Structure formats: C-alpha cells, structure tokens
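Task 17 of the worksheet. Students: predict the tertiary structure of the chain below and write it out as structure tokens. Keep your answer in the requested format; marks are given for formatting as well as content.
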Amino acid sequence: MARKFKIVDYEQSGQQRMTIDDCLPADHLAHFIVGIVKMLDLGVFYAYYAAVGGEPLDQQVLLALLWYAYATGVFSSRKIEMATYEVIPFRFIAGGLHPDHSTIARTWLMLCPWSMWCRTASVSSSRAPLPESALV
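Model answer:
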C-alpha cells in the first residue's frame, strides 16, 4: 500500500487572510520596542528636518526598526529594508512602509554620530581615539 502524504494547494494557500496580530503575540519583542520608542522624546531628531521637501518617515519608526534589527542580529541596512517586506515583526514596526536602505543607513548615522568610529575601530587592530563629538 502506498503511503499518503498531506499536500498543499498553493493557489488556495496564497489566498489566506491573516493579520499581523494573528502572527505576532502581544508579548513579542517588537511590541516592547515600539512601546519604549513611543515614550522617548525625539524632538531633537525632528528638528533636523527642514519644513520643505517630501514627507519624511517618522523617526520613531526608523529608531524602532534599528533597535529591533540590532537586537535580532540584523546589521545591514539592505537586509533591514528587505525584512520590512518579508519578516512579520519588521512589517509590524514599519507599519506597512518600506524605508529605503539609504534612509535607514542615514538614520543610523544621524542617531549615532560616533557609529563610523565604532565600525572603523572594530575593524582596525588598534583602537582609534573616540571623536570629540561622541564625548559631548
């Protein structure tokens, strides 16, 4: 007798309706990070933007994306961008938006002005002195 296997109808499977709330438990790290970021005063970062130009992405979203990404071991801005399309917690944090990898990288540099020192110092065999801007 031949063994029977469960099969998947991929046409019907693609028609499933689900929400992020169905997939992401309330106690997930993504919810925690979004809650913490909402409590922060990010006025200094909002002041960075001029009154003219296109509508920028909220700094709360970008900061939460960066914190979640780094907490889960995702360090590449291109991988973070791709995750906003493919990974449920990233989709939740981004709220259905998909910031460009260059926006994510610029935000990291703006939020953490000593980040370039961190990258170069970790690559070099001898640590470079901390820049003055990081000591303020």
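Marker's comment: Residues 121-125 have pLDDT under 50 and may be disordered. Residues 62-118 form one domain.
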